[in-house]
Structures are given as C-alpha cells and as structure tokens.
C-alpha cells in the first residue's frame, strides 16, 4: 500500500520511475518466457500441414505483391466470437512453412485463415475482378489485371530459396516445379487425380477461369489456388485438443 501511497513521488522522479519500469517489464517478461522452457516446441503436433504446391506458392507471391495482407489477416484468435465466425483458432503449425507468415490484428476485410473451400472458385474470380458484384458495399478494389498470363519461369528457383530457410522441398519437387504447376492448373477435377496430388494432397485442381483450350495459366488461377487451400490442410474433426500441444 505504501507504494500506491507514494506513487506521485515515483512518477515525478525519473530514476525511481525508470527502476519501476525495469522491474515491471522484467517480471512480466519472465512470466511470459519462463513457461517456454518447459515445452519441447511451440509448434503444435498436427497432421496434414505440407509446403505449398508450386501453383499455390505462385499465388501466395501474388497475394503478397498485391498487398492483400494490408486488409486481411490469417489469424483466428482463440475467442468464441472469432471461432463462431471463422472456425477453429489458428495454430502455429499451419503457418510453419509461411515466409513471411500472415498473422496480424489489422482487418478491413474478413480473416482468410479458413477461406479454402468456403466459396466456389468462380466466386473468387468474380469477387477479385469486381468485388461489389458479389459483396455489395465492399471497399475492396478490383483486380482484373490478374487475368494476365502467369510468369512461372523461376518457380523452381523460388522453391529452392524456400528450402534454404527450412521448407522441406526435395530435389524432385524443385526440378519438376513448372511441370507440377501446369499439371495442377490444367488438370480435369473430374478425372483421376494426377501425380502432383501425391506430393501436394488437398490441392485444388483445374483452372479458376474459363479459357481457350491450352490457354496459358493465369495469375488468377494461381491466386485462387492459394486461397482455396487456406485452412484445409488440417482436419480438425480428427484432432484431439489434448494432443495439439506437446
């Protein structure tokens, strides 16, 4: 109580105030950091999380290039209102191959952590070209320029760079990146799964936009493939909450 009684003296004395701040920050830091030494990893133990396919990674690069992260986060917080709107709260494991990750608190538009499979691909196309055609009152700008051909001549190099920071792409995936990208984008979703699915399960197959036969893969195809995989890798109906953390 004496501390509160003499708070005015502390607040008007630079030295005492500095000491108080240092003590407070030190105690708070220990409370937050000390428990981390008792666990093996801060990454949850869940199945299904994989590196992005070449097409998805190309789409993610476009997502970053266009600044989509300025209005959309990919982090659902562990609160009831968030879970009811967006789904299961985000796990660190879901973003372990993201460089950089898209967690954050700034939202002008909805969180996109679980947007995969929520809408049909043609909905995403219409939304990206003219947002107000499907969401009246939206303040999102249109992105019709994404209908242009995708340049993926360096996709193998991009995967190799990601491997250097810990993403577990193997030599076969890197060397065949361009082929895998085309195979995913140009596959018939109603036919037998192509070989690319063995390396990238749950990838969305087929074009996002109608195009002439043998037409080039577009930036729109890549971005929609990325959006359609978000939140789909982990099957939370099969996850025991008690086993999520080590």
TrEMBL record:
Keywords: Heme, Iron, Membrane, Metal-binding, Transmembrane, Transmembrane helix. Signal peptide: none annotated. It comes from the Bacteria. Residues 54-163 form the Cytochrome c domain. It comes from Magnetospirillum molischianum DSM 120. The chain crosses the membrane at residues 12-31. This is Cytochrome-c oxidase fixO chain. Gene3D superfamilies: 6.10.250.2250, Cytochrome c-like domain. GO terms for molecular function: electron transfer activity; heme binding; metal ion binding.
């Amino acid at each position: 109580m004496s501390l509160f009684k003499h708070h005015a003296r502390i607040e008007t004395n630079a030295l005492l105030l500095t000491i108080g701040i240092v003590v407070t920050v030190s105690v708070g830091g220990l409370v937050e950091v000390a428990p981390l030494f008792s666990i093996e990893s801060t990454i949850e133990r869940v199945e299904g999380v994989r590196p992005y396919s070449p097409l998805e990674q190309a789409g993610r690069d476009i997502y970053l290039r266009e600044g989509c992260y300025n209005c959309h986060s990919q982090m659902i917080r562990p609160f009831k209102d968030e879970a009811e709107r967006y789904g299961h709260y985000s796990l660190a494991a879901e973003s372990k191959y993201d460089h950089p990750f898209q967690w954050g608190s700034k939202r002008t538009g909805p969180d996109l952590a679980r947007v995969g499979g929520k809408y049909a691909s043609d909905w995403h196309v219409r939304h990206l070209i003219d947002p107000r055609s499907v969401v009246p009152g939206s303040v999102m700008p249109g992105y019709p320029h994404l209908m242009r051909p995708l340049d993926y001549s360096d996709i193998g190099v991009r995967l190799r760079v990601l491997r250097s920071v810990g993403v577990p792409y193997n030599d076969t995936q890197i060397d065949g990146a361009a082929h895998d990208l085309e195979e995913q984008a140009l596959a018939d979703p109603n036919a037998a799964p192509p070989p690319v699915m063995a390396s990238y399960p749950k990838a969305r197959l087929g074009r996002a936009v109608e195009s002439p036969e043998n037409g080039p893969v577009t930036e729109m195809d890549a971005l929609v493939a990325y959006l359609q995989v978000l939140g789909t890798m982990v099957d939370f109906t099969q996850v025991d909450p008690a086993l999520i953390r080590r």
